[in-house]
Amino acid sequence: xxxxxxxxxxxxxxxxxxxxxxxxxxxxxxxxxxxxxxxxxxxxxxxxxxxxxxxxxxxxxxxxxxxxxxxxxxxxxxxxxxxxxxxxxxxxxxxxxxxxxxxxxxxxxxxxxxxxxxxxxxxxxxxxxxxxxxxxxxxxxxxxxxxxxxxxxxxxxxxxxxxxxxxxxxxxxxxxxxxxxxxxxxxxxxxxxxxxxxxxxxxxxxxxxxxxxxxxxxxxxxxxxxxxxxxxxxxxxxxxxxxxxxxxxxxxxxxxxxxxxxxxxxxxxxxxxxxxxxxxxxxxxxxxxxxxxxxxxxxxxxxxxxxxxxxxxxxxxxxxxxxxxxxxxxxxxxxxxxxxxxxxxxxxxxxxxxxxxxxxxxxxxxxxxxxxxxxxxxxxxxxxxxxxxxxxxxxxxxxxxxxxxxxxxxxxxxxxxxxxxxxxxxxxxxxxxxxxxxxxxxxxxxxxxxxxxxxxxxxxxxxxxxxxxxxxxxxxxxxxxxxxxxxxxxxxxxxxxxxxxxxxxxxxxxxxxxxxxxxxxxxxxxxxxxxxxxxxxxxxxxxxxxxxxxxxxxxxxxxxxxxxxxxxxxxxxxxxxxxxxxxxxxxxxxxxxxxxxxxxxxxxxxxxxxxxxxxxxxxxxxxxxxxxxxxxxxxxxxxxx
Length: 641
Fold this sequence. Notes:
This protein is α/β, with parallel strands linked by helices.
């Protein structure tokens, strides 16, 4: 368990913790009061045990020292942060998981620095080298940097002779004990530094000797001199032992993991090159994304920043503005500032998408981008014809459309669309060619007749979106997508993929899905009547149903045969031929409801008025508006059904 979680648990028991740490104190209002962190009676130390600042304290007897309950634990008991954490865990009853050491035979030895190694003197080449890198005597001393004229030989070396220096001795201490040692040659060969690591030692971070016991944040660098540089800038720092890269380069993590537990924040200031960034990925994945931040340096590494004149104030700004590494999916509400404002005030006055060629309750119905719409209905009730007309209306509004009509040959699809777009049953040859030219650049046909593969459908749709800017897609029908009507898992997966596609591309997909067979065709099917998994309608943004009024058709036949019916011919003519009904609308701008439609047999168009003339969509630049001769109550006509 990490330090933030432990502190939170202590905060939840603030009064009990304060009473345990300072038994001589007493509660006054919302605070536990005592003389100081030394525990005597008085009122200078105040620990908030209730309210918004619960767990915070201030000791006015010591010049206003303040902190949280872990700080108080350290102060009252004279402990390091690591030891205070151990005691706090015991108090809270937290047991860390224990692991059996696997029998790898791996063991580490303590380093044996050369007998000639000594503290780096100010007149030595080692000291002058480090000073030339901008490091001060105080920094060199804080890290206990040494020097030696020769290194080795070490066990396992091919040669039994030492390697001549001068060498910079870079010791790694933990809890005051030397655990590893690294050597850096003062001279460089071909511009590259030459280092040696004493073999057999535990891989650990460099710089613990200069890290205060009470600090809660640490900066990690890619080199020892960079760690010393960050320290000199005023921030506790450690260096990874083996530089950038992944895997074996970062094996120190398993040894240092428990020692890094005390840090609430780990700032990664590794080299700004490819290897450095690979190391960043590895370290983040293992130490925890929630407490790691990345500092972007203006030069290759921290020491180059120092040599290039980056000031302490500038480095403080770099460290404080280090980027957190929240998952890409986790964002603040302000991320969508402009997008939410556009929901209320869309560019152009309307959200992107297209309106249907009919209105519901005298209001336009808009199919928006980023949505999947299910259109269902019984066989022969006009699903395909109504969807094709919707797409023609969309094209007249500037949308680019791709239609996958896997049940009908492309020439038949285009034959119907030409009739609908021109509003004619038998247009002239030139008119047909002109209409097809009008379709060019607006319409693309997915040329598959029969069963289509879902992966191929999405692949072609993505290509059409990327290359041609297609924003409205039709799949006719789900039955022809290679998914069994009994395979509910595959149906759900496909709907998930369609939703991912429209969200990624900001497009709209109309998916035609057949309805289950009922007792008869006299009742309009609803969303619960869609054949297949309930996930089909659950995952869609909108669900619409097409129903053909066969009751009216039967009554017309009776009239022609001289039989009597309940309605007069005038009333029957004004009864809609079809019903387009919305059973689900995810966007608040659209309502659930129904639209009564009249079918014009010669143009294959659906109109909202019984005597409306066919619309020539090829001539329209905007959504077509009904031009019925009689102004009638649309709601009354729909209610007649």
